[in-house]
Write a structure and sequence with these properties.
This protein is of the alpha+beta class. Helix content is 25%, strand content 28%. It is built from 2 helices and 5 strands. The strands form 2 sheets. Strands 2-1-3 form a 3-stranded antiparallel β-sheet, with helices on one face. A two-stranded antiparallel sheet has the order 4-5. β1 and β2 form a beta hairpin. The longest helix has 14 residues. The radius of gyration is 13 Å and the shape is globular. The termini are far apart. The C terminus is likely disordered.
Length: 97
């Protein structure tokens, strides 16, 4: 199983949209045992605390579909804007504060 998710700190207007597709991945793992693989999210979390928005956005049976969906969403929301911590599709840092 694969899924996309949204993590956010509304007070700081910072967001992270990601995809999880590891073997045995379950949506219930998000923010219980899985905290994203992003070092930028880890850093932001250590400075600003836990996010107040943690959402599973969509579930997939196919990893390729999940990755394509993530890219499509990132393009639609124009994730390169400063309020997004990371442009996940191509792994570029856009803001860390």
């Amino acid at each position: 199983m694969a899924y996309t998710y949204l993590i956010g700190w509304t007070q700081h207007q910072k967001w992270y949209y990601g995809v999880r597709y590891a073997k045995g991945a379950k949506p219930t793992d998000l923010w219980n045992t899985y905290f994203t693989s992003s070092k930028h999210v880890k850093n932001f979390r250590s400075i600003h605390g836990e996010p107040d928005v943690i959402q599973i956005r969509k579930e997939f049976e196919n990893v390729d579909h999940a990755r394509e969906w993530e890219s499509k969403v990132l393009r639609r929301i124009n994730a390169a804007k400063e309020r997004y911590l990371v442009l996940i599709a191509i792994r570029l840092v856009t803001s860390q504060t």
